[in-house]
Write a structure and sequence with these properties.
Layout (H helix, E strand, L loop, with lengths): L2 E5 L2 E3 L5 E8 L6 E8 L6 E6 L5 E3 L7 E6 L4 E6 L8 E9 L6 E3 L3 E5 L2
Parallel strand pairs: 2-11
Antiparallel strand pairs: 1-3, 3-8, 4-5, 4-9, 5-6, 7-8, 9-10, 9-11
Length: 118
């Protein structure tokens, strides 16, 4: 059974930082590309950051220079370091795992709430 479990969300003031974690089980983690998506109320889910099995990364323009995605294959975990948070970063953040052989095979976590507010 595949599980992706996000943690690390919460309430933070503008300008603050959070680190999200996503622990994966039930998959061969090293052969999955990993991504963080977010969905704000009334908006579509959007890609925030992604990292390939080889470690290449890409980011949404809105978070470049502020967020960093990384992975630890030994721990089956992907991270999202979020700095200089803004109110518009408020959303539910979801972890995604996509098989490198067939992108149609992907899995989602249940999400973790991030709220940026003073």
């Amino acid at each position: 059974q595949v599980q992706l479990v996000e943690s690390g969300g919460g309430l933070v003031q503008p300008g603050g930082s959070l680190r999200l974690s996503c622990a994966a089980s039930g998959i061969i983690f090293s052969i999955y590309a990993m991504g963080w998506y977010r969905q704000a109320p009334g908006k579509q889910r959007e890609l925030v950051a992604a990292i390939t099995s080889g470690g290449s990364t890409n980011y949404a323009d809105s978070v470049k220079g502020r967020f960093t995605i990384s992975r630890d294959n030994a721990k089956n975990t992907v991270y999202l370091q979020m700095n200089s948070l803004k109110p518009e970063d408020t959303a539910v953040y979801y972890c995604n795992a996509r098989w490198v052989v067939d992108a149609r095979v992907d899995y989602w976590g249940r999400g973790t709430q991030v709220t940026v507010s003073s």
